[in-house]
């Protein structure tokens, strides 16, 4: 057997300077240039480039992008792919192969933070999410793989050196030109490249130069996490010959030069890990304040040139939170209106008019259903919140294993006719996987909404305190930009209204002792139970309205 050992593995540790202002995530991509977009200016700014890999249609880049991730913000990303023809840094002098647009939230929100998507066939990527992508017209698509992982706080740097003995001879007229490639295991059982050594020419007993690599790049602070090393014989045309591989862990490597750090380089190895996932289920409810939507005095006024406050708030919040829902299908209900044909008052009617299936396709689908409903219903009081809160709570109570978390978005003029019943409904909902976002529109006083928020005084009902704070309220008027810059003001609105959701979700999981659920190994065919996409609303006996 070929053997490879580490010499003085991890003989030195150095702290990495700097602080972490937000959650840092690492994006692995198989492309060349990453651009980020400013919230206010909408201008694309180059963030970084990968290294260039010669003579391959399937590159696996070592260089990663480290970004600050904010759950409550929409962080637009663009990836441009080039075929590099020279050493010139001017991208205009190279062949453009295609580009991908996505948001960082889409990446994080994908199952196991990893997703494969078709693109231009020249390259393969690594990242994660539901993304929009485009290639060169008329060309076949290859595969894009996008993955992201939250970085740990480990700041140590490991210094290691490796050598090998009696590797396989791969060159017909010589020996081998070996180099090492290191990978860390991901939560879904796949591997991400994290380091590549230099090539040592014409030898079967190479001694590679010492390397210094951040520990979080090797294992993200998990000392027992599997690390895989592959040994290749370098070829000029890029078709490097595989010699063998071995697996280890940072804990083993940290023992330094010893019998524990001698590895057999074998042709095949199998390592598997498990991934975790918890998917939010987003639900939307629009409160219907009295007034004629065709008149400009109504908060629901359908201006042909500008969205009303309800639509703007829905779009601002929905465009961010929808990234964390896999199928982008959302139930949208209204409350406070007379319904045709008999004019009965309802406090939980489907905006799309379909009682058995109130789901709308994405935010655009919800907005379309909202506008259509304004043409068919008559806005009417009183305004009761408790029916919609209890409606959602009924479905959230069925799924308390951590696999789903329900977010209820309520957009209202602030009038509430059933305060006591709503407080009781919220106290009960605090025990289940559910959060409530309330956006108040109009110029009314929102004292009742502030009380429901419970930031200053925890909400209670019948002498019982809510187990946790699950309500976040913001008044829409506080975010109206006098200069007319609605894009920036709506970004601020979404940031503030979504700020408490991650903490609320984590607190629920901790209170229930729920650990992340394992995902099936990569490429495993889903079972019949995994193929059942029936939503809880689509039960044989739909909720009466």
Automatic annotation (TrEMBL):
Domain C2: 1-119, 140-263
Keywords annotated in UniProt: Calcium, Metal-binding, Repeat
UniProt key word Repeat: yes
UniProt key word Calcium: yes
One GO process term, biological-process aspect: cellular response to calcium ion
Gene3D superfamilies reported in the protein's UniProt record: C2 domain
A Pfam family: Copine
InterPro entries per UniProt: C2_dom (IPR000008), C2_domain_sf (IPR035892), C2B_Copine (IPR037768), Copine (IPR045052), Copine_C (IPR010734), VWF_A (IPR002035), vWFA_dom_sf (IPR036465)
Region of interest (Disordered), ranges: 517-545
MF annotations from Gene Ontology: calcium-dependent phospholipid binding; metal ion binding
GO cellular component, one term: plasma membrane
Family: Belongs to the copine family.
This protein's name: C2 domain-containing protein
Source organism (scientific name): Oncorhynchus tshawytscha
Lineage, broadest ranks: Eukaryota, Metazoa, Chordata, Craniata, Vertebrata
């Amino acid at each position: 057997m070929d053997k490879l050992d580490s010499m003085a593995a991890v003989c030195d540790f150095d702290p990495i300077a700097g602080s972490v202002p937000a959650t840092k995530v690492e994006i692995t991509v198989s492309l060349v240039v990453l651009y980020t977009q400013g919230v206010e200016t909408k201008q694309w700014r180059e963030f970084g480039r990968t290294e260039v890999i010669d003579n391959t249609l399937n590159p696996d880049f070592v260089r990663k992008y480290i970004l600050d991730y904010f759950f409550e913000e929409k962080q637009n990303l663009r990836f441009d792919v080039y075929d590099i023809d020279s050493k010139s840094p001017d991208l205009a002098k190279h062949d453009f192969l295609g580009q991908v647009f996505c948001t960082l939230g889409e990446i994080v929100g994908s199952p196991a933070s990893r997703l494969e998507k078709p693109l231009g066939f020249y390259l393969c990527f690594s990242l994660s999410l539901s993304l929009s992508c485009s290639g060169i017209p008329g060309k076949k698509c290859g595969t894009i793989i996008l993955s992201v992982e939250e970085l740990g706080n480990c700041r140590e740097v490991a210094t290691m050196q490796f050598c090998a003995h009696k590797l396989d001879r791969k060159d017909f007229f010589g020996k081998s030109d070996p180099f090492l490639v290191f990978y860390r295991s991901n939560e879904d059982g796949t591997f991400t490249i994290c380091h590549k050594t230099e090539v040592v020419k014409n030898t079967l007993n190479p001694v590679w130069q010492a390397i210094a690599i951040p520990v979080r790049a090797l294992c993200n602070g998990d000392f027992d996490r599997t690390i895989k090393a592959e040994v290749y014989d370098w070829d000029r045309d890029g078709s490097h010959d595989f010699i063998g591989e071995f697996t280890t862990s940072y804990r083993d490597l940290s023992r330094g030069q010893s019998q524990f750090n001698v590895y057999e380089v074998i042709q095949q190895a199998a390592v598997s890990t498990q991934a975790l996932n918890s998917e939010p289920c987003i639900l939307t409810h629009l409160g219907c304040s009295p007034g004629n939507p065709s008149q400009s005095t109504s908060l629901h006024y359908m201006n042909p040139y500008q969205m009303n406050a309800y639509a703007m708030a829905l779009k601002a919040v929905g465009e961010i939170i929808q990234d964390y829902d896999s199928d982008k299908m959302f139930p949208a209900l209204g409350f406070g209106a007379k319904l045709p044909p008999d004019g009965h008052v309802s406090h939980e009617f489907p905006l799309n008019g379909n009682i058995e299936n109130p789901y709308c396709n994405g935010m655009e689908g919800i907005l379309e259903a909202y506008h259509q409903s304004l043409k068919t219903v008559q806005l009417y009081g009183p305004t009761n919140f408790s029916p919609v809160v209890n409606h959602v709570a009924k479905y959230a109570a069925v799924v308390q294993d951590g696999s789903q978390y329900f977010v209820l978005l309520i957009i209202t003029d602030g009038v509430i006719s059933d305060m006591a019943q709503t407080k009781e409904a919220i106290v009960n909902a605090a025990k289940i996987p559910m959060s409530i976002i309330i956006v108040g529109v109009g110029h009314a006083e929102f004292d009742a909404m502030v009380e429901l928020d419970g930031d200053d005084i925890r909400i209670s009902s019948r002498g019982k305190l809510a187990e946790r704070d699950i309500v976040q309220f913001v008044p829409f008027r506080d975010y109206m930009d006098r200069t007319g810059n609605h894009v920036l003001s709506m970004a601020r609105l979404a940031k503030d209204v979504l700020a408490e959701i991650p903490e609320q979700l984590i607190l629920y999981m901790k209170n229930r002792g729920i650990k992340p659920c394992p995902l099936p190994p990569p490429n495993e065919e889903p079972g019949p139970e995994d193929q059942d996409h029936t939503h809880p609303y689509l039960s044989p006996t739909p909720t009466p309205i």
